[in-house]
């Protein structure tokens, strides 16, 4: 199997499930409502909604890098989720994020394997492979935060 297929599969699995951690973003947020998604806890300045928005944002950054762009990351770093007023708005955010995982996974799957070790920018010494693996690690890291926040919210 081609390495880009494996990377793409791993990225989709962190969102949809069947990864080695046996925890997924989709399963972890499916029963969270819009109020819980925005609930602050003492454990973090982030909310579940802000983490989901941050993941959506960074999937877009990786897509831009794949196009040879070097986007400037603002101080908000994708945590600037708009206030949600309903479950419908929360569901839209979840669906956009899910689609971003699927779109990025498809782009990685179709990425030329011979370019994996090449730098995505002359100004930043980081390979495409490192970015692809990094976005998966990033998603797992924030998934852990989501699970902790969910447990704190449900235990409150």
Describe the structure.
With 156 residues, this protein is mainly alpha-helical. It has one domain (3-155): Four Helix Bundle (Hemerythrin (Met), subunit A). It is built from six helices and two strands; from the N terminus they run H-H-H-H-H-E-E-H. It has helices spanning 3-16, 25-29, 34-37, 48-66, 87-109, 128-155, and strands at residues 119-121, 124-127. The chain has a two-stranded antiparallel sheet with strand order 1-2. Strand 1 (119-121) and strand 2 (124-127) form a beta hairpin. Helix 1 (3-16) runs antiparallel to helix 5, helix 1 runs parallel beside helix 6 and helix 4 (48-66) runs antiparallel to helix 6 (128-155). The longest helix has 28 residues, at 128-155. The protein is globular and about 50 Å long. The chain starts with a helix and ends with a helix. The model has no long low-confidence stretch (mean pLDDT 95).
List the helices and strands and how they pair.
Layout: H1 3-16, H2 25-29, H3 34-37, H4 48-66, H5 87-109, E1 119-121, E2 124-127, H6 128-155
Antiparallel strand pairs: 1-2
Helix pairs in contact: 1-5, 1-6, 4-5, 4-6
Index terms:
Four Helix Bundle (Hemerythrin (Met), subunit A); mainly alpha; 6 helices; 2 strands; single chain
